[in-house]
Amino acid sequence: EVQLVQSGAEVKKPGESLKISCKGSGYSFTSYWIGWVRQMPGKGLEWMGIIYPGDSDTRYSPSFQGQVTISADKSISTAYLQWSSLKASDTAMYYCARYSGYDLDYWGQGTLVTVSS
Amino acid sequence: DIQMTQSPSAMSASVGDRVTITCRASQGISNYLAWFQQKPGKVPKRLIYASSSLQSGVPSRFSGSGSGTEFTLTISSLQPEDFATYYCLQHNSYLLFTFGQGTKLEIK
Fold this sequence. Notes:
heterodimer, A: mainly beta, 4-stranded antiparallel beta sheet, 0% helix, B: mainly beta, 7-stranded mixed beta sheet, 51% strand
């Protein structure tokens, strides 16, 4: 069974760094792209970027380029989304999802990030 | 970048109604178009992929159509559990994805 399991909710202060994770299982992790999606409170879904764990090829949405870093450690089947300096506006639910070749077929359960002083 | 215009942004309908939601792309995207349903506090659920293929386990009252720049999601007979927000999703050959703005479907 394909599963993407994300790390737990985080509460951080502005200016702090953060790295959240997404662990894949039940399939060949290095053979599928993993994407990240943001959903701010009460808002729609926003595409952030995608990584191919096999060779770490990474593509970012222009809206998120330079704002976050997407990485992966194929040895432990885990993808990451990280911030070097969080802002209050980063408060959101973040989802990882697997790219099927057509679209996003399996999703993680989401990680809620709250940034507040 | 390809822009996706989803309409309507919100609508109200009754159980048993036929509902159509549309996504228009700013340029041709072949059939790389999917539809998702999201209920409050839940993970988005894929309904349709490759424009018209029904995800396994999704009721047949859901259908998708279109190609090129115009795509539709149709619910043939609304059920109480269908009241949710719906999103389209497309991507280009460089794997830059774009979601539609969402359609909130409410009970009339």
